[in-house]
Amino acid sequence: MQNRIKFRHLQTFIEVARQKSVGKSADILGISQPAVTRTIRELEEILGVQLFEKEGRGIRLGRIGEVFLKHAGASVAAVMDGMNSVQQARQQQSPPVRIGALPTVSARIMPDALERYLKEEISGEIKIVTGENSVLLEQLRQAELDLVVGRLAAPEKMTGLEFKHLYSEQVVFAVRKDHPLLKTDPLRLGDLERYTILMPTKASVIRPFVEQFLMANGIPELPVQIETVSDSFGRAFVRSTDAVWIISEGVVSNDLRDGRMAILPIDTRETRGAVGLTTRADATSNAALAIMSQSIRAAADAHTQSGR
């Protein structure tokens, strides 16, 4: 039934309901009276009900027609809002798109997503910031950001927010390509105590996963730790020292692919977590933001399928 109802059916129905006259509606819509009558009859046949009743020389909505009008009006309004949003995006009136991206997706997903987005030739400012999850979520709540791309936060931190899953990833122990631990067989987690460890900060979304993993494997604390969420520092420090970087796999995916880093053979599957799009539950979307979200999803799907 829904596939048979066209926009012209709804538009004509709403106008006739407003004017209570086929003739006046025809003048406003710029079509003939027979065309208006035919369109209303088509709609009534599709719905299997009579929408209008005669009233003197005019017509009025019946009870079923009044119920349908509420939904028809909302549908037409939504379509018009969508058309206006697209028009604004094409006429350089689009609002800025402000994205908060955790380091796990900044290098792996966002370059591809931005390339896809720019091909749509949507005008307007694009802002991308990185930082700790708690900071980005607070900026999202304060409407300073429109979207945060990263790991799903703890339930108590998701009040008023919505999350849409993209893919899952786990924490890894990354080292330079010729690190001594790569030659250690068998490798035990206790061997890490001899090296400097780069840890995610306490405000990082993956910190609880890391702490739980270490505790479960009998390591309550590592002697030498440097807390950081800076992927540029982590990358430079690890590649020039014997440090071990405990980080989400997505942050170092390009380094692993290019052979500049390696992952220690430690089973970290229990640290897997969902990565996705977080938005405010009460936020109103626009064409530019919707296209950006679609671009990010397409980029994530492409990376997942390619195994990168």
SSE order: HHHEEHEHHEHEEEEHEHEHEEH
Task: Give the helix proportion (percent range).
Answer: 40-55%
CATH architecture of the largest domain: 3-Layer(aba) Sandwich
Q: How large is the count of helical segments?
A: 11
Cα(first) to Cα(last) distance is: 43 Å
Rg over CA atoms: 28 Å
Write down the CATH topology of the largest domain. Answer: D-Maltodextrin-Binding Protein, domain 2
The chain-level structural class is alpha/beta
Strand order of the largest sheet: 4-3-5-12-6
- Strand residue content: 15-25%
Q: How many beta strands in the DSSP annotation?
A: 12
How many domains is the backbone divided into?
3
Question: Which spans of ≥5 residues are poorly predicted at pLDDT below 50?
Answer: none
- Report the sheet with the most strands, covering strand number, pairing sense and barrel closure: 5 strands, mixed
Averaged pLDDT, please? Answer: 87
Task: State the fourth-level CATH superfamily of the largest domain.
Answer: Periplasmic binding protein-like II
**CATH top level of the largest domain?**
Alpha Beta
Query: Per the principal axes of the C-alpha atoms, what is the gross shape?
Result: elongated
Layout: helices, strands, pairs:
Layout: H1 7-19, H2 22-29, H3 33-47, E1 52-55, E2 58-61, H4 63-90, E3 97-101, H5 103-106, H6 110-118, E4 126-129, H7 133-141, E5 147-151, E6 161-169, E7 171-176, E8 197-199, H8 207-216, E9 225-227, H9 231-240, E10 244-248, H10 253-257, E11 261-263, E12 273-280, H11 287-306
Parallel strand pairs: 3-4, 3-5, 8-9, 8-10
Antiparallel strand pairs: 1-2, 5-12, 6-12, 7-10, 7-11
Helix pairs in contact: 1-2, 1-3, 1-4, 2-3, 6-11
